[in-house]
């Protein structure tokens, strides 16, 4: 295969109890794609149009303002919002079903979807059609960008308020307990002197709040890699210190698209540490491990559906939650994953209602890192990875760019207090109306189970995971 002179590299990172990083590019290991509205405009030269990241990689005041205050354009509404929700659920399920079975897994479908959507903004022709199909986009051009812009606006609106100045300590503590961090930010890194189509840059800036920063991949490869990794490291609160490994970029790299998501929140009803005990966890029907099992009895949203006990654990902010899907059979997770469909996530979330539950959940902490190239090709996104078939002319007006790979990294930690993750959704559960004398439903997550962290107002599945073995590695 002939290598193009100007490969495309796109990166995605998430932060929080779960951290995810995605990488898309050509002439490097990692990539992500996107499609933009048709444009006959001439490309414009890459320029440093955004404030440079600080040396530590932590967000500057101007970057924070851009991430939290920027108002993405044309949010989808009504039927479009419902369609977008179904599309994001379907994409999450497709990614999950393509993963190897049995082992621990954690990823951010939202982070992957945003990275691919940014690349889709520059895709044209057959490449755009294939990417639209994989992303579940069936609406008019620009509908996907509008729906994601709406989601990003909802996420940004969730910045936790601070206690008024001069408040008593108990008031400050109450505000702190409900505090939640949900950060979703994006950035483009272009080769110095490289030209890009104005409409492509406009779509990414307007809908994704993703400014362009210039680097010199050709002349200072390691310096460029270090700048991107420092940005990701800072945005993910040091949960993803090295998104781009040495050797992933090349001097032919011309564009890197990055997205970082960080989530941290406390449970609405924390587990009492004194109730945590050593308990067995059945990794397989013939092998068990000893893990720290948390427990609490209370009113939660619960349902028995699809041969599983589904329980929703709200975070204190009231805007995000974790769905825990525990198979009824100790070896039943594989069967559930085999039958999961595009509407399963919505069906599980919609089935739960308040019930008294005696719930046991292991502490767990895990990270994942993998390439999505083969999986995306299998789903139908073929031409994006092939030069000269790839058509990303909406980015730079040429046919020189293609995706070489899509790399994703994620991290999550859950304990008695709450969760920290790359992207997250939290739901605050209201007190149930059932009488306290009600016998509780007993749910023990003492065998492999699924988790889904959701943002409530949009229904976006921020993170999806499989806990096959919760013991430390």
Tell me the Rg in angstroms. Answer: 22 Å
The geometry reads as: globular
Average residue-wise pLDDT:
78
User: SS-based structural class?
Assistant: alpha+beta
Helix content: 25-40%
CATH-assigned homologous superfamily of the largest domain: Antithrombin, subunit I, domain 2
CATH topology category name of the largest domain: Antithrombin, Chain I, domain 2
Which architecture of the largest domain does the CATH hierarchy give at level 2?
Answer: 2-Layer Sandwich
**C-alpha end-to-end distance:** 40 Å
The number of domains is: 2
CATH class of the largest domain: Alpha Beta
Weakly predicted, low-confidence segments? 1-78, 422-436
Q: What is the tally of beta strands? A: 22
Number of helices: 12
Characterization of this structure:
The chain is α+β, with helices and mostly antiparallel strands. The chain folds into two domains: 303 residues, Antithrombin, Chain I, domain 2, CATH 3.30.497.10; 136 residues, Alpha-1-antitrypsin, domain 1 (Roll). It contains twelve helices and 22 strands. The strands form three sheets. Strands 1, 2, 3, 8, 10, 11, 17, 18 and 19 form a nine-stranded mixed beta sheet that branches. Strands 6, 12, 13, 14, 15, 16, 20, 21 and 22 form a nine-stranded mixed beta sheet that branches. The protein has a two-stranded antiparallel ribbon with strand order 5-9. Helix 3 packs antiparallel against helix 4. The radius of gyration is 22 Å and the shape is globular. The N terminus is likely disordered.
